[in-house]
Amino acid sequence: MTVTNQMRLVQWGEVTEGQMLPTYEKPPITKVQLVKYAGASGDFNPLHTDDAFAKEIGMPGVIAHGMLIMGFLGEYVMQLAGDKALVKQFSMRFGAMTFPGDTVTCGAQVKEVNSQRASLELTAKKQDGTIVGMGAAIITFPIA
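Given the sequence above, the corresponding C-alpha cells read:
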C-alpha cells in the first residue's frame, strides 16, 4: 500500500508496541533524479552523476546520494504523522549503496507508545531486502 498526501494511514490512538506500520514504496531511482538531487543539494560529487568516473574508481556505476535516501525516510515519516501529529525527532544511519534502477521501500515498527507519542524504528530497503538506511523517529499525537 502506498502512502499519499491525501491519505493518513495511521490512527495514532490505535497503534500498539511492535506494530508494523504501512510501507511506502518509492519509484525506481533514475540517473536524472540523481542529477536533479545534485542540483538541489549542491552535492556535485561525480560519484553520483558521472558513470565513467564511478567506474574509474571501481564502482559499477553512479550511486544515489545517501541524503536522498534519508529524504525518502523523512518523507515517509511526515506522511505517517499526517497533518495533526508532529515529528519531534528523526535520525538515520546509512546502509548499503543504492543504484539507479533500485526501488526503495520505507517501513516502520512501533517501538514504544503512550498516550502522547510513539517511538518508531525505521528501515529503508532495496527490492532485494538489502537495508540502505536505518533510523528512528518520535511522533507526538494530535490533541483531541
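Residues 52 and 58 are 10 Å apart (CA to CA). Try to locate this feature in the C-alpha cell string yourself.
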